[in-house]
Amino acid sequence: MLSIRHDPFPLEAVRDLLGLVRAVYAARAAEGAGAVTLAKIAVIGVDLSQALELGDAHGPGTLGHAAAWKRAERAATAAADLVALTDGAEPIVLAAMGRVTR
What we know:
Order of helices and strands: HHHH
Largest sheet: none
Distance between the termini: 20 Å
Structural class: mainly alpha
Shape: elongated
Number of helices: 4
Radius of gyration: 14 Å
Oligomer: single chain
Helix content: over 70%
Number of domains: 1
């Protein structure tokens, strides 16, 4: 269920996180990750892209705005799950995630 939100959508933070997810995809592809892993990462990127489109097109207090937030938060959580505790990118992804989920 969507909850109407009145706070501004964090376009820049979501853009930053999308860039990080794209970098993780590229790194995993270069490491020879399997199709399932790459598909999971791609889904996160799609969610972030759609969140950006919705967040840009719809203002606070609308269903489109609420959908943008829900997608961004779901994708941010999934992005954090992409990195292992031993992965050097973990602090960067967690910082970006924090900007999206506040």
